[in-house]
């Protein structure tokens, strides 16, 4: 009876892969960028972007009074030293008394260690409203 309990009680714990760690870090960076954008916190946007990425980000941002923005990560691809995070996004931007709802699919290209936003491909959620 004791042998049965001892043999069944032990479970193998597999170590977390490097790819899984990079994917989790990419999710966290995307969420940090989303929160910083909603709060219009440019210093946090800068801290989580490469120099060129921040320049691109600030260049496309439009003024808004309020934004509700949600991200749903749909795919992560790791190529060489870059992480490509596909993000389905939905947002409502308010400027004055007018609201505009948009949705799209963007690909955040993250580079470096720690990961930072290098560019946004396809639909850029930070470009709205237009």
Question: What number is the mean pLDDT?
Answer: 90
Number of distinct helices? 4
Radius of gyration: 19 Å
Record field, number of beta strands: 4
Q: Give the strand content.
A: 35-45%
Structural class computed from helices and strand pairing: alpha+beta
Helix content: 25-40%
CATH topology: Nuclear Transport Factor 2, Chain: A
- H and E order: HHHHEEEE
Return residue spans where pLDDT drops below 50 for at least 5 consecutive residues: none
The largest beta-sheet arranges its strands as: 1-2-3-4
- Label the overall shape: elongated
- Euclidean distance between termini CA atoms: 71 Å
Summarize the structure.
By secondary structure, the chain is an alpha+beta fold. It is about 35% helix and about 40% strand. It has helices at about 1-10, 20-40, 40-45, 50-60; strands spanning about 65-80, 80-95, 100-110, 115-120.
Describe the protein in words:
With 130 residues, the protein is of the alpha+beta class. It has one domain (19-127): Roll (Nuclear Transport Factor 2, Chain: A). The chain has helices spanning 2-8, 18-38, 42-47, 51-60; strands at residues 66-79, 82-95, 98-111, 116-122. It has a four-stranded antiparallel sheet, with helices on one face. A hairpin with a 4-residue loop joins β3 and β4.
């Amino acid at each position: 009876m004791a042998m049965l309990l001892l043999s069944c009680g032990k479970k193998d714990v597999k170590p977390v892969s490097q790819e899984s760690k990079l994917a989790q870090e990419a999710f966290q960076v995307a969420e940090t960028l989303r929160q910083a954008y909603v709060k219009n916190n440019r210093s946090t946007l800068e801290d989580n972007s490469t120099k060129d990425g921040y320049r691109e980000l600030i260049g496309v941002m439009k003024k808004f009074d309020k934004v509700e923005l949600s991200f749903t990560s749909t795919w992560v691809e790791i190529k060489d030293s870059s992480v490509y995070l596909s993000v389905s996004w939905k947002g409502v931007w308010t400027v004055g008394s007018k609201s505009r709802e948009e949705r799209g699919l963007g690909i955040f290209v993250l580079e470096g260690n720690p990961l930072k936003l290098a560019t946004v491909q396809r639909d850029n959620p930070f470009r709205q409203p237009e």
